[in-house]
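SEQUENCE-TO-STRUCTURE ENTRY
===========================
What this section holds: a protein sequence and its matching fold, both as plain text.
Tokens: labelled as protein backbone structure tokens, with as many entries as the chain has residues.
Question of interest: how does this chain fold, as expressed in backbone structure tokens?
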Amino acid sequence: MGARKKISAEKRKEALKTMYFAKLQNVPTSPRKMRLVADMIRGMEVNRALGVLKFSSKEASARVEKLLRSAIANWEQKNERKAEDGELFVTKIYVDGGAMLKRMRPAPQGRGYRIRKRSNHVTLFVDSKNTNDNQN
């Protein structure tokens, strides 16, 4: 690794130490379906977001709810205190495409149709409101 790359990699690692996030990788649902759930909670206060996810009928919402609880626990672990009501917000959440399983389905006249079984990676960031104000 070159010196310039190494320096930028170390800066990125240091920046991640001050952020509070959780990752969920290789979720066997399509990224498009997961983004619908992610868009529902982006920018919300965490207790409200947990309520929205709990009563959502989408299958992906259960996975995102578990991920959000993990991100809250990570925040509490790094700050060594419990999160109070109205303190934490979902600052960023994004869904990236993951590995794709490619399969073939028999079709008429000796053909084969391609089936792409998609997966995704979800990254969720939480932070308190007052640290967001200090950064801006």
About this structure: The CA atoms of residues 46 and 70 lie 12 Å apart. Strands lie at 20-27, 88-97, 101-106, 112-117, 120-128. The chain has five helices and five strands. The chain has a mean pLDDT of 92.
